Amino acid sequence: MCSFRQTGIVLTDHTFEVPLDHADPGGAQIEVFAREVVATERAADSPADSLPWLIFLQGGPGRPSPRPNGRDGWLDRALREYRVLLLDQRGTGRSTPANRLTLARLGGPQAQARYLAHFRADSIVADAELIRRRLTGGRPWSVLGQSFGGFCTVSYLSLAPEGIAEAFITGGLPGLATTADEVYLATYPLVAAKNQAHYEQYPGDVERVRRVARRLADTDVLLPSGASLTVAACQSLGLQLGASTGSQLLHYLIENAFDGDEIGDDFRYRVDALLTCSGGPLYALLHEASYAQGSATRWAAQRVRADFGAFCAETALAGTDPVLFTGEMIYPWMFQTDPVLRPLAEAADILAGYDAWPPLYDQDRLSTNEVPVAAAIYYDDMYVPQQFSVRTAAQIRGLKRWVTNEYEHDGLRVSNGAVLDRLIGMVRGTG
Prior knowledge:
Layout: E1 2-6, E2 9-19, E3 29-39, E4 53-57, H1 73-79, E5 83-88, H2 100-103, H3 109-116, H4 121-136, E6 141-146, H5 148-159, E7 164-170, H6 180-201, H7 205-218, H8 231-235, H9 246-254, E8 258-259, E9 262-263, H10 265-275, H11 281-286, H12 300-305, H13 313-318, H14 334-337, H15 345-353, H16 363-367, E10 373-378, H17 386-395, E11 400-404, H18 411-414, H19 418-428
Helix pairs in contact: 3-15, 4-5
């Protein structure tokens, strides 16, 4: 362990050894990293004191926990009464990495896919339980789950509710039996609505995006990483549209796309940073698998897209319709264009065809839940359809829901602690 200080906080790094496969605790081991954060004025307290633990489960899948920069945002609200643990979920951040370099050491695609099958929410929950027992002396802790972290929290309530004192979920109530196909049947229309709102706010972007798409259709354009900037890759920049400032970011990006008649360097470098999976290849590898329970996803986003012809750029370019951006969808072509994903294409295809995924949620157990839970459901959420979340909220006994259009999916991050404060009040009966 090592500790260091930032303004208002003391941070302590922890590394834990956990089984790769929790069903085989004596088998291969991996490391999971977590960072403890405590307010400076409570730093002298021992972990065994009355200050309770709050574990933060990050969105993703496959993204590391945030790196604090002092005491601000939701973390400031949490530190008023908690000792916070920022977990780098297995395979992310400073935990044992899972990427093209480390996975290559395992052998061929079949071995890589078998390894990656242990990186879903159920394994993350099992990691958290081992860590909890080591840190808290066995006492249950509070859980805050954002987006995919909320999915993990619902798995936690299903698999090990005895480990949770209270739970807060933001933009992350999954459909308990919703398939990947159903997710994309719901999200493509949401993305189309975000496109419409974007083009209504920035009507000049209709022609700007068409100009970019025409250039990419006619010319091979490489990004600095060596990835091909295709029309489909450009469309996938729409992932930004579900964030509070995503439309603005996309507008400012597109308005500066050209240097004369060529796609400019500034645009290419900024797009490269937005499209690469170098910081989280698990996001692409396990995104659809995070929905799978007992059946194969078979590249659901790609298949379902065929039902939504408005997203066909070729048709749009042949006519007068706007070129639509896509959203939080992973497509097979990404494993051909992104250099950090290319060596993992065969493993990804095996995972897409895997049909023996175990259940992630226990509906019977959730229906008798006794853990206090509050959830923020964002009405306009582009990533987690609110209709599934509302249904799930009714299926978890005692869950208090807050449905709001005041925030987008990133409400926890941008609300300066207000979202978390409200959820804490709901659980305590004071808000």
